[in-house]
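Module 6 notes. Inverse folding takes a fixed backbone as the condition and produces residue identities as the prediction. Think of it as a translation problem where the source language is geometry and the target language is the twenty amino acids. Below is one complete input and output pair. Work through it position by position during the lab.
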């Protein structure tokens, strides 16, 4: 009795099935740990948001209840009235002005270093970046003394100056790397048509450099928005408190209103989260171009 050999079609089908199954296993081996990591990373924020909507009695329940019932949105109103409202106004003003100054000054410096050829430009770039190696805490006391003698304490100007100076080195580095990726032919064509260097910078270089500008603006805004040390040191009046300082003062001397505190924390996170969600593509593009070229 003769044995029948497997058909030529069945063998490839089996191989394709095994290959498909191996790909599924490899994909699961990669994505399952990543999914677990995302869950672990997001859990504190989800729990904080849940706590911000709980009444005082729900906060003391054991075992704790994840979904608040009933909701307590008055925690947000109470946090706003405890200083978060004034903190938002102060932080938005200080951060916006700091971003504008840093982007304008940093773009001019980065264009000069990245696009112009002049002796010592690399050494000048190193001098700009070198202060980043010095911890900010080391400079805090000397800076406080200088600002005190200049009578700038408890003013918006002191925060704007310090945030701008702190963010300039990294901003110059990012934008310089991006400017060097732009083709010189575009500028040369504009010069042939009679455009000035300032006009070329404004109408050609800057529109093409939007990803780098957005990335720089987000980094500066995030650094300024999240600052606590400089703001708490250089200001003392309640009217000058920024968001992070106002968040700290939601902690009382004799107890903590956890609902209002978590509401204040969620409020402080919201602007940065929204900005990144809206501008994330330009941010990633600007960072990668600047990093790869830089």
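Target side of the pair, the amino acids:
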């Amino acid at each position: 009795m003769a044995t029948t050999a497997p058909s030529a079609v069945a063998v490839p089908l089996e191989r394709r099935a095994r290959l498909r199954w191996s790909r599924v296993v490899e994909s699961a081996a990669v994505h399952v740990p990543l999914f677990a990591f995302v869950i672990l990373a997001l859990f504190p924020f989800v729990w904080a948001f849940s706590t911000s909507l709980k009444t005082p009695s729900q906060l003391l329940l054991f075992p704790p209840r994840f979904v608040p019932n009933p909701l307590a949105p008055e925690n947000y109103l109470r946090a706003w009235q405890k200083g978060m409202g004034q903190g938002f106004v102060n932080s938005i003003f200080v951060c916006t002005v700091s971003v504008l100054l840093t982007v304008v000054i940093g773009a001019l410096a980065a264009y000069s270093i990245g696009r112009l050829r002049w002796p010592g430009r690399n050494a000048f770039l190193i001098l700009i970046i070198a202060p980043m190696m010095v911890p900010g805490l080391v400079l805090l006391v000397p800076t406080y003394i200088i600002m005190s003698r200049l009578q700038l304490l408890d003013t918006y100007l002191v925060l704007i100056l310090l945030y701008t100076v702190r963010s300039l080195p990294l901003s110059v580095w990012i934008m310089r790397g991006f400017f060097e990726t732009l083709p010189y032919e575009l500028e040369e064509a504009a010069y042939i048509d009679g455009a000035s260097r300032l006009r070329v910078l404004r109408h050609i270089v800057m529109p093409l450099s939007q990803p780098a500008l957005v990335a720089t603006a987000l980094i500066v805004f995030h650094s300024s928005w999240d600052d606590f040390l400089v703001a708490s040191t250089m200001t003392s009046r309640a009217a000058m408190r920024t968001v992070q300082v106002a968040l700290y003062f939601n902690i009382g001397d004799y107890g903590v209103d956890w609902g209002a505190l978590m509401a204040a924390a969620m409020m402080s996170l919201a602007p940065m989260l929204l900005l990144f969600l809206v501008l994330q593509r330009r941010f990633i593009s600007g960072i990668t171009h600047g990093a790869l070229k830089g």
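Reference fact for the lab report: The two ends are 75 Å apart (CA to CA).
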